[in-house]
Each structure stands twice: as structure tokens, then as C-alpha cells.
Design goal:
The complex is a heterodimer of chains A (326) and B (289).
Chain A: E1 5-6, E2 23-32, E3 36-46, E4 50-54, H1 61-68, E5 76-81, H2 90-96, E6 97-100, H3 112-122, H4 127-140, H5 156-168, E7 174-178, H6 186-201, E8 206-211, H7 214-220, E9 223-228, E10 231-237, H8 238-243, E11 247-252, H9 256-265, E12 271-273, E13 276-280, H10 284-297, E14 301-307, H11 311-315
Parallel strand pairs in A: 4-8, 4-9, 6-7, 7-8
Antiparallel strand pairs in A: 1-3, 2-3, 2-5, 9-10, 11-13, 11-14, 12-13
Chain B: H1 7-10, H2 25-40, H3 47-74, H4 86-89, H5 91-105, H6 107-111, H7 115-119, H8 125-156, H9 161-194, H10 200-224, H11 227-233, H12 238-250, H13 262-286
Helix pairs in contact in B: 2-8, 3-5, 3-8, 5-9, 5-10, 8-9, 8-13, 9-10, 9-12, 9-13, 10-11, 12-13
Classes of the chains: A alpha/beta (326), B mainly alpha (289).
Chain lengths: 326, 289
């Protein structure tokens, strides 16, 4: 249900099923003052579900979000959000998008209920609907009991939830969350990630989560877009990134060819990696099969290792230490 | 983050998509206008936020009641508290009021960094600032209009018959118009100054300072200048411009003497409002979202 594609990885075939991309960019470029390039020729498609937008601080995540909201005009390239052009249809785009900024953005001297209601009306909800939606949204983020208390008295975790609630109050089709776990303790972080996951799955709202912590986004996202210095590093489904490289490496001191032949005979796809054989792990029986064959052929086993890459490793590039470094 | 473990059960009631009406930007702007109007009076916030605006409004009202009572009882009009002179005479109270409420409208949002939440919604930057300005003008107009209306009621029903009441009415209307002009000019200046600082106290001080600093300039010119100079002197102070304009449009107190420069005062008021509004719009186009 969730497919991410970058032009670098696989050229768009145009027949990718019925799922319509929520966000598409084509050569999107944003330069500040002719010198600073925040986004460079970014071409990516983001489809419904939860998408992690990862990159180090200053990689261009916030610029991308502001461009998607129509608050920044791209220097070059095209961008479509929910089928609209944010530059010319900013008002319509912003009516259907929810945005949770990274930094503090709440007035301390009003109640959460009052503030979220106000923000609902700012998004175009009629008075009564705004009040009802505010209550309901605060309930969904777990702040029902406390909603009439002034925000100034809230903990960091509760404030983050109010920020999330205000982005959700008008029931957007797309939610842009900029570092939603910012400043939270481990328990709070898990709670927030759980909430974001629920929004993306149960609520049926497309979510783009910005984070400089890949490990965090990886837990909840269906797809990942990694950018570095405004350039696309990689975009793909999380599942594709992990399972595609779940391979078994077998190294025997002798009889490598015999083993390869025997494995092929049993229907396994065999590749060579130096002296070792590699085979994709198709099911748990793959392990048993490999073990049994080695025993049957009485080969001296040197190494048997599963290589299931973490997503973080996949993003590692020679040019930098990967986007996980904050 | 007390009970993260509990959250699962708290919001396990299911999410429902919103299928109702979505009103656009116009609705958002009107809502912001109403919300800002309420902010001026501290509504939706703690009692502390209500003290100052309601105190000033209360004082103005008491003064109006006294003036009306004096007029009804002794059949004399206090010239400084005539309909058209009322805002000018009590302009220091208005300045204090604006110093308190303009920062509530402008500085507070800057300080709390709420603007990104507004600007990521259908509402535009220009809409935001114009709605705030309109709300402030309305609030100040209302704070002035209520005492004027009380004075009118006092005057109209103090026994000089229907013609007396009509006479009061024809005096009251220019007074009302004058009050709105005061509200527009003072609000535009005060909101612009308040928008320059995210610190409420600094903004409040700056508002008072701008109004106070300009007054002595015109005062000095009044004293040392030639006849023409004296007639132009009030142009150098914001409240002076308003007094001069009031003098030209509605009469009332003969001070300040403006000679035949009435249109110049009107022009100055228009330019001042236009300039402040333009700078406000410019300011909010530049302010970081």
C-alpha cells in the first residue's frame, strides 16, 4: 500500500497501481540569496501512509516542509501536494494539511481546549465544529482530562501533544510533523511515536515525520526519504530496505562449488561474495536447508551469518557518516 | 508524561473523519478578528488579563457618568468633556490602554512563536495583521463609544424635551465619529510599535514613549514659534494631529490653534495611518514563520 520511489532508484513506470502520490516533487530546488542551496534537484514521490523524512540538522527537511506548505517559493522545479501546487494554491493546500512545528509555539496563558478550538477555526471549521473537534482531538492525543488547564502548566510531553492536536484538529489529509519527539524523555518518545503510528494507520491520515533520528522513524514509518544537503540520498519502503538485504552468507573452507550446486538444486538463488556464498532468506526453512546440506556433504563450515541490514547501514554513504548523525 | 502506559486505553474510542463544512480564509480572518477583539479585553484568559482594559473602560465610563450628571443637575457642560473633546481630554488614558493591549495582540504571538501555526493555515500574513488591527480599532472605538453613549443618554433625558434630545443627538454623532478617528490613528501607531518587540513590557514602554516623546516637541514649538509655526506645531505629535483634526472637522475646544491648516492635519492623520499599516504589513511579511 505504500510505495516510495526516487528517480535514482527505479524510474517511474507509470503503472504503480491505484495509489495516488500525496506529494510529488520534480527537480525541486530552493536557494537562499543565490548562495545557500537548501534543496537541490529533489525528485521524490511520497504516497499515503507514514513516511519518515530523515536527514541531519540542516539537511533541508524544514525547507522542504515550508515549501510543501506554500510558505516558501521554490527556486526551480515542481511540487505537488495533495494534487495541488502550493505556490499558487497555498490557501487550499494549507486547509487540508496539518503542521506541527519543531519548536515551542504555544501560548502559556490559555487552555488547550481554547487554543485548539481557535486553531480549528483558523483552519476553516465553523464555531461549534471547531469546539467539538478540539475536544475530540485532545482526547485522541490523551489530554482529555487536562484540556481546560492553562498550557503554561503542562509538561513538555503534554505540550507536544497539544502541538499535535492543533495540527490534527481540522482533520487534515496530510500531516507534516517536524521532530515530534523533540525534548521528550524515552517514555514520552515512545508515547508520541505510538500516537503518530496510530494516526497514520487507524486514523487514515498520511503522515510525513521529520526527524534526524533514523532509528526512531524506522519504528513507525512505512517509507523513508533520506536527504542530505538538500539532495535525495534514498527513498524507499522500509520493508524493501530491510528484507531486500536479508541474506544468508555461507562460507566453507572447501567444497564451495559442491554446496552451491546442491543449494541451486534445491531451488535457492545463489550468489558469490568472494569466497562466500550468499542466498536470500526466503523463509525459516532456508536456514535448516543450508545446515542440513552442509552436514550431508560433510563440509568444514567456516562462517554462517545472516546479514539483515539495519536501515541506518543502508543510508551510509562514503561522503558522510550517514544521516543518523545529529 | 505521567501515564504513557494509559494512553492506549484513553483514546481507544476510534477516530472519526470530519465530514462537515469547511469554510475558507474569510471565515478564518473573521474568527481571528473576533478572537483578537476578545484578547483586548482579556477574555478567554485569566482574570489578570482583564484587569487593565476593564479598569480603563470603567474609569472612562465613570467620568462620562459624572459629566452627564453635572450636565443634568447644574445645566452646565464641562467643555473638556464635550462629545468631541472627550477622547482628546482623556488621551493619556487611551495611551495607557493601548500600551497595555497592543502588546497583548502583537508581542504575545511573537513571544510565544505562535505565528507558524497561523501561517501554516489558510490565513495569510496580511490577513493576520489586518484582522488584529481591525480588532484593536473596534475595541478602542467601543471603549470610547460606551461613555459617549452614556453621556448622550444623560443629556437626552435630562428634561429639555424632544428638541433638546435631538440637539444632543446631533452633537453625539460627530463625537462618535471623532472617537472612531482617534481609535484608528492610535491603534495603528500602537500596534506597529508593539509588533517590533516580542517582550510585552518593552513594547508597552515603547508605545507610551512614542506618544509622550512627540508631545513635548510640539509643546516647545508652540511656545517658541511664530504664528504659523504655532499653528503647525501640533503636527509633530500624534495626539496633536488628532486634536488639530478634531478642531478642523468638529470644532470643540479652540486648542490647538490650527489656522487654515485643517486639511494638512487631515492629510497627516491619513498618512500616519497608511504608513503604520503599510509598515505593519511589511513587518509581518518579514517576520520568521
Amino acid at each position: 500500500m505504500h510505495v516510495l520511489r526516487s528517480s535514482d532508484d527505479s524510474p517511474p513506470t507509470g503503472t504503480y497501481g491505484q495509489v495516488v502520490a500525496i506529494i510529488t516533487t520534480q527537480g525541486l530546488t530552493k536557494r537562499y540569496a543565490e548562495r545557500v542551496t537548501a534543496l537541490a534537484d529533489l525528485t521524490v514521490e511520497i504516497e499515503p501512509g507514514i513516511t519518515g523524512l530523515v536527514g541531519a540538522n540542516g539537511a533541508g527537511k524544514s525547507t522542504l516542509i515550508k515549501t510543501m506548505l506554500g510558505l516558501l517559493t521554490p527556486t526551480a522545479g515542481q511540487l505537488r501536494v495533495l494534487g495541488m501546487d502550493p505556490t499558487s494554491q497555498g490557501e487550499q493546500v494549507r486547509a487540508r494539511v496539518g503542521y506541527m512545528p519543531e519548536n515551542d509555539c504555544l501560548p502559556p496563558d490559555v487552555s488547550a481546549a481554547e487554543f485548539v478550538t481557535h486553531m480549528g477555526r483558523m483552519s476553516g471549521l465553523p464555531k461549534t465544529a471547531a469546539r467539538e473537534r478540539a475536544s475530540e482531538t485532545l482526547r485522541h492525543v490523551g489530554l482529555y482530562e487536562e484540556r481546560y488547564r492553562q498550557i503554561g502548566g503542562y509538561s513538555t510531553g503534554m505540550k507536544q501533544r497539544v502541538k499535535l492536536a492543533q495540527s490534527l484538529v481540522h482533520d487534515p489529509d496530510l500531516l507534516l510533523l517536524d521532530e515530534p519527539t523533540n525534548g521528550l524523555d524515552p517514555a514520552g518518545r515512545d508515547g508520541m511515536l505510538d500516537l503518530v503510528h496510530r494516526i497514520g494507520t487507524e486514523f487514515g491520515i498520511a503522515v510525513v515525520v521529520c526527524s534526524h533520528l533514523l532509528g526512531e522513524v524506522e519504528q513507525i514509518a512505512d517509507g523513508l526519504v533520506a536527504i542530505e544537503s538538500g539532495r535525495l540520498l534514498r527513498a524507499d519502503r522500509v520493508s524493501a530496505m530491510t528484507t531486500r538485504t536479508a541474506v544468508l552468507t555461507v562460507e566453507v573452507d572447501e567444497g564451495t562449488d559442491a554446496l552451491a550446486a546442491a543449494l541451486s538444486e534445491r531451488g535457492l538463488r545463489i550468489g558469490r561474495d568472494g569466497a562466500a556464498l550468499v542466498t536470500p532468506v526466503e523463509s525459516d526453512s532456508t536456514y535448516d536447508l543450508v545446515r542440513d546440506l552442509i552436514v550431508d556433504l560433510d563440509l568444514p563450515l567456516h562462517r554462517l551469518e545472516e546479514r539483515r541490514h539495519r536501515v541506518a547501514e543502508l543510508f551510509n554513504t562514503p561522503s558522510a557518516g550517514g544521516p543518523t548523525n545529529g | 508524561m505521567a501515564d504513557v502506559a494509559n494512553t492506549g486505553t484513553i483514546h481507544d474510542i476510534g477516530y472519526q473523519r470530519y465530514t462537515g463544512q469547511r469554510l475558507g480564509r474569510g471565515h478564518a480572518v473573521r474568527s481571528l478578528y473576533v478572537y483578537s477583539f476578545r484578547t483586548v479585553f482579556g477574555m478567554g484568559r485569566s482574570a489578570k488579563a482583564k484587569i487593565f482594559p476593564f479598569s480603563v473602560a470603567g474609569i472612562l465610563l465613570v467620568i462620562a457618568v459624572v459629566a452627564a450628571a453635572v450636565k443634568a443637575q447644574f445645566k452646565v457642560e464641562i467643555p473638556q468633556l464635550s462629545y468631541v473633546d472627550f477622547p482628546g481630554t482623556l488621551s493619556f488614558l487611551l495611551v495607557l490602554l493601548l500600551a497595555a493591549v497592543a502588546p497583548e495582540l502583537a508581542s504575545r504571538d511573537l513571544r510565544n512563536k505562535v505565528l507558524p501555526l497561523y501561517f501554516s493555515r489558510p490565513i495569510g500574513r496580511d490577513d493576520y495583521v489586518l484582522a488584529k488591527l481591525a480588532a484593536l480599532v473596534t475595541a478602542v472605538s467601543l471603549i470610547l463609544a460606551v461613555p459617549l453613549f452614556v453621556m448622550f443618554l444623560g443629556g437626552a433625558f435630562s428634561g429639555s424635551g424632544l428638541s433638546g434630545a435631538w440637539g444632543q443627538f446631533t452633537d453625539f454623532l460627530p463625537g462618535l465619529l471623532n472617537a472612531v478617528i482617534y481609535a484608528i490613528v492610535l491603534s495603528a501607531v500602537a500596534l506597529l510599535i508593539a509588533s517590533l518587540s516580542s517582550r510585552r513590557t518593552i513594547a508597552a514602554g515603547a508605545v507610551v514613549a512614542v506618544f509622550l516623546v512627540t508631545t513635548p516637541i510640539s509643546g516647545v514649538l508652540q511656545v517658541v514659534g511664530t504664528e504659523t509655526m504655532r499653528q503647525l506645531a501640533s503636527l509633530f505629535s500624534i495626539t496633536g494631529i488628532l486634536s488639530g483634526l478634531r478642531n478642523w472637522l468638529f470644532g470643540g475646544s479652540a486648542e490647538p490653534a490650527i489656522g487654515s491648516f485643517g486639511p494638512l492635519y487631515a492629510g497627516a492623520a491619513v498618512v500616519l495611518v497608511a504608513l503604520c499599516t503599510a509598515l505593519l504589513v511589511y513587518r509581518y511579511r518579514k517576520v520568521a514563520s
